[in-house]
Amino acid sequence: MDEERESNLKIILGDNSTHPVKGLGSVKFHLDSEEPILLHDVMYVLGLKKNSVSIYALEEKGMRVAFIKGKLLTWPIGSSMRNAFPLGSKFEGLYTVTRRPLLALVHHTNHLSEPWHRRLAHLHYDALPKLKKLVFGIPDVQAQHDGVCPGCASGKKTRGPFPSRENKTNDMLQLIHSGICGPILIHSIGGHLYYITFIDDFSRKTRIYYLKHKDEAFEMFKEFKALVENLTRKKNKIFRYNNGVENISNDFINFCKKKRIKKEMIVPYNPKQNGVAKRKNRSIVEVARAMLHDQKLSKFLSREAKNVAVYVQNRVPHQALDNKTPEEVFIGVKPDVSHLCIFGCPVYFHVPKDKRNKLETMGRKGTFIGYCENSKAFRIYILGQRKVEICRDVTFDKYVALGKARDIPLPPPP
Ligand SMILES: [Zn+2]
What we know:
- It contains 9 helices and 18 strands.
- The chain has helices at 55-60, 113-119, 150-155, 217-232, 249-259, 275-294, 302-313, 326-331, 398-405; strands at 10-12, 18-30, 36-45, 63-68, 71-76, 85-91, 94-97, 101-104, 175-181, 194-200, 206-211, 238-241, 262-265, 346-350, 363-371, 378-382, 387-391, 394-396.
- α6 (275-294) crosses α7.
């Protein structure tokens, strides 16, 4: 099912009669085994007397299917056939879904805004309709949505669709804002106590680095500076930082003198002076909190959530840039957002033959936790193993993520 074409959907029956699809959503069934199952992308078609299931759609959604002794069996790719459950049975020469739906759970009108709000790291709903002109890879999305987003309600402060207008510099790297945050006392993947952000004032492109000690900030600054100067062929002229970064010693002072970088240290409690870094760091924390809360995920994944917040915010419009995206200003091309996914979404991925042992299946399940900056690969967290895999060939189950956000009950794991 193509999301962009959903409003024009029609089905054609064997007698050539055409029937418009009145609604599209998720439907809960009770099967013969009495176990509930949630089916997604179910079309409501007036006049259709029988419930039908598309085998193609099941396979597309990461399910295996078999017909054995009059039963239609299905089970997730990556698990054993022993976990199969009956979806339907043979009746008068046809396989049919055996029970009636209990409840239609999701109405189709907000079919796009709910997932895209989450794929775009809880971007304000009012910003969604404007995005089609500003980025590649997004359909027409309306601002209309289903009440209050639970992630935003707990994680984000109320704010307009885009940040307010600010004065900014005339060239890339002319001014870099930086702010250090911590100590963070929650253990996370990689283990760190602090993080530091670097924001190019001209493009608002942001990068985030993690530190075990504050005195690593100088090394991170040098790494960041070498990277962005190499990418842009420009030189950093002013470095504006908060009172956490000044601990970086005489080496930092000498380095700036040698590279002719003007240092501007922010006086604590002067909100006007380093508003850009302070607001950015607050926004990263709030968005990360919203994403974790939305998918009921542990704070253990907060570092990954912050990385996703930065990655996505670089690809959505900023009012200081006349609604261009930081990525477009930085590299000169509108970003493609088609690969963005809901943080915490269940994902199935392929394991190459040489990377699995004899007992492992070729498909495995994990949780989507991030992007790779320089490739289209995804970071997948393997539950139970506390391990992160980098994969390109993945299938997302966004409907499970949407159901989780809205506390829609899901079928028990097979
Ligand atoms: Zn939200």
